[in-house]
Structure formats: structure tokens, C-alpha cells
Amino acid sequence: MSAMLGSYLFDWLSLLGRWLHVITGIAWIGASFYFVWLDNHLLPPTRQEVLDAGVGGEVWAVHGGGFYNAQKYKIAPAALPPTLHWFYWEAYSTWLSGFFLLCLMYFGKAEVYLIDPTVAALSKPAAIAIALAFLAGGWLIYDTLCRSPLGRNDRALGAVIAVVMFAAAWGLCELFSGRGAYILFGALLGTIMVANVFFVIIPSQREMVKAKRENRLVDPVYGRRGKQRSVHNTYFTLPVLFAMISNHYAMTYAAKYNAAVLIAMSIAGVCIRAWFVARHKAHERGGKTSPLTLLLGLLTLAGVAFALVPANVSVPATSAIPVSTQQRFADIQTILQQRCVPCHAPTPTLAGFTAAPNGVLLDTPEHILARTVQMQTQLSTRVMPIGNLTQMTEAERTQVIAWLIDGAPH
Questions:
Q1: pTM of whole model > 0.85?
Q2: Considering the domain boundaries, does residue 397 fall inside one?
Q3: What range(s) does the Urate oxidase N-terminal domain occupy (predicted)?
Q4: Is 292 in the same domain as 345?
Q5: Residue 326, by phi and psi: left (phi above 0), alpha (psi -120 to 50) or beta?
Q6: Which residues pair with residue 73 across a beta bridge?
Q7: Domain edge (last residue) among 307, 335, 366
Q8: Using alpha carbons only, what angle is made at residue 150 by residues 149 and 152, rounded to the nearest 5 degrees?
Q9: Virtual CA dihedral for 367, 369, 374, 380, nearest 10 degrees?
Q10: Helix (H), strand (E) at residue 295
Q11: What's 226-261 look like in SS3?
């Protein structure tokens, strides 16, 4: 009873954590995307009183039944307003809820979701320590690069950061399960993004406000540094979002060259985001935006989709002795009963599971025959049994896959 109650509590923590993470993530990304859009749509003001006030750009918009006029000052207004809105709790809340989920799911159940003995034989403490080292080390390396002389050349800096991130993606896939590696890569980028807010963007803004209140000039380095990190954050966003949803798509993280898939999907995300950012400034080019980055992103996606097309799988014969169709199906049921039904049953018996994952049931012949396509994909990619917790043997896996390839005779 206590184990069942513990699993029930775990499910509620996971549900509420995910819900909070999605809500705060929408708030953070929405605000981030809006300000990128706003900054890129600013036009030089035409009214003299606005120019005299020190406004460098403005944009008019209509939304929700009203007209809005957003203005950006070249430096700061003559007098700070009594109420100044800040944007940072959305970022902090997103990271905190995401780290909570990482600890709950991937650290708390590292043997299920993070460790794959066929990739690297890691103990649970070692896997968690390495994962945390990636998160902290990734930020330190990234921040050092940005603060180095390389940081004065945005293109060169971007190229080096890309190489470092791709190396991290490869390293994670060499150490952890595909699912765990992808989530950790997203967590790494997300950690860099929120650290940019906490350590650079907000301190830069506080310094600007402080300088204005003390009637002194603001060092322009703070504005440049904050702007640079904000630009990086907007390009990290789509790769992070892909990593966060990737656990639903085994075809990506369970691919033979899953690191290459992760890198390619990240490149596609950056290219597509770059096109949208450029499109925001189309007014500077007579309303035209080059489609090259968008095409590159879409072609990359198409290339990944083509590369992951399932191949015709051939398996060796499982037995030299002919068996009847009925006996063959009975043998398959026995294997599934031992290796799959502990999770995929109305009431799972495997510790930590209170319901069948994704609602997939394999406890009856009817349920088995209704899921043959999914079973072939999951078994061929070695995603299931998850973490091989039920210790399916290679002979058993081969036998079930051969039966599925033959059309699941019954």
C-alpha cells in the first residue's frame, strides 16, 4: 500500500511540475520573443517632442481593442518612472520547475531514464554527478568565451559556441541513454539561458537604473553585454523546446547516430529562428527577407526525416524446428507477459509504475495485436523495455521482432 501511495504521489508531483514548467516556460519565451520582435520593429520617431525626450525608436500596435505606442530610449528617460517593470521571474521559475522535474524523473529514477548500461556502465551517483557537471561546466565555458576577447566578434563567438554545444551533445549521447542525453542537452541550454538572465542581463539593467538615479553616465558595455546574451538566448530557444519534447519521439533519441540527429535538429531550430528574427527587420529591406536560413532549416529537417526512415529489418531465424502459428503466438505472449506486461497492464506490477505508460496495454491477445506497429518500432530501436528493467534477452527481442516482421501471425 505504501509503495502504491508513493507512486501516486510521484505522479502528482510530476504532473504539477510539468504543468508549472509549461506555464512559466510560455511566459518566459513569450516575453522573450515579444521583446525581440519589438526591438526589431522599432522605427525612428517623427514627432519632435518624442525626439526631444531622447526616444531612439518606437512602434505602434493594435491589440485587444486598443492602440499601443512602445518607445525605446537611446539611453534613459529624463526621469525614471515610479513603477518600472522587470522581466526575470518567468526565467527563474522556468528553470526551477525544470530542475525539479530533472531531479524527480532523471535523477530520482536514473536507472530507468538516464542510465543505459549498453552505452556506459555508470552507477546512479556517478551518472547524476556527471550530469550536474555538464550543466555547471557548460555555463562556465560559455561565459568564459563570451567574456574573452572572442566576445567582441559576434560571428566568431557564435561559431565557437556552436562547436562547444555540439561537442556537449555528442558527449552526452556517449554517456547516457538517448532519452536522458537529449533532456540533459536541453537542460544545459536552458541553464545557460537562465544564467544569462541572472548573471548578466539583469545585473546590466540594474547598473543602468542605478547610474540614472545617481545622475552619471552608463558604461555602454553593460548594454552591449546584455544585448549579446539576449540574442544568444533567442537562438537557443527552439533547440531547447525540441529537446524538451523529444522523449515522446523515440525515432530521434534512439537512432543509431542520435548525437548527429540532436545536432541537426538544433541547427534546424537555430536557422528557422534566425529567419524569423531577420523577418522582423524586413522593413529595413523594403519588406523583403532572404529565405536562405529558412530553407536551410527546412532542408535540414527533411534530411533528418529521410535519414530516419525505418529500414527493412532482417533477423536470423529463431528456431530450426517449425512451429504452428498458434504455438508461435503463445510463445510471443509468454515473452511479453514476462518482459512487457509488468508495465503495460491495467495495474502494473513493476515498482514505480501506477499506470501503463502512454496507456499502452499488452496484457491480452487483442491488446497485443492492436499495438504491433508500435512494438516493432520500440523493440527495434531498443527503447523498450525502458532501461531493460525486465531484462529482456537478445534472443527474446529477436524472436518478437521476427514475429512482427512476419505480420504478427496468430
A1: yes
A2: yes
A3: 8-286
A4: no
A5: alpha
A6: 55
A7: 307
A8: 75
A9: 120
A10: helix 292-307
A11: HHHHHHHHHHHHHHHHHHHHHHHCHHHHCCCCHHHH
